[in-house]
Write a structure and sequence with these properties.
With 148 residues, the protein is of the alpha/beta class. It contains 6 helices and 3 strands; from the N terminus they run βαβαβαααα. A 3-stranded parallel sheet has the order 1-2-3, with helices on one face. Strand 2, helix 2 and strand 3 form a beta-alpha-beta unit.
């Protein structure tokens, strides 16, 4: 699985990651600039899959809205619009991850949030996403073992 955090730098390293991935999860901030970057990323994905002749193409599992601040009207509006924008593309919109400076603090120390602040309430935002991804990967692993 490859997790791309928009806006991403799209270059050779991303091509390599895409070539070996079976699944792709796209993180996106709820801002017009980030959503535009996500659209660029989807265009890159289609072009790179074709250029690299990937068969099958990595499955896009969905978008995860990140750094969500419910106090910002623009973010609330974009969060409401995102599922509608993704629906025609048959791309899932996962539940949002709330904004917390503790993500940056943990990243600055080089550790995940659950090790930095084990009781932080933003950790709970990640649970349903992790559960679903784990289930998908386990199902795919079982399918691959049955086809061998």
């Amino acid at each position: 699985m490859v997790i791309l955090d928009c806006p991403a730098t799209l270059g050779n390293l991303n091509d390599v990651a895409l070539a070996v991935a079976t699944h792709m999860l796209i993180l996106v901030e709820l801002s017009p600039k980030s959503l535009t970057g996500a659209n660029v990323l989807l265009s890159w994905y289609r072009g790179a899959c074709k250029k690299l002749r990937l068969n099958p193409q990595p499955q896009i599992l969905g978008f995860v809205p990140t750094k969500y601040d419910s106090g910002e009207a623009a973010q609330r509006d974009l969060l409401g619009q995102l599922p509608e924008m993704l629906s025609p593309l048959k791309i899932k919109c996962y539940p949002h991850i709330r904004y917390s400076c503790e993500f940056s603090n943990a990243s600055g120390k080089g550790i995940p949030l659950h090790l930095h602040r084990s009781t932080h309430k933003a950790i709970k935002d990640l649970h349903p996403i992790c559960q679903e991804l784990s289930t998908i990967l386990q199902e795919d692993k079982g399918d691959n073992q049955r086809t061998k």
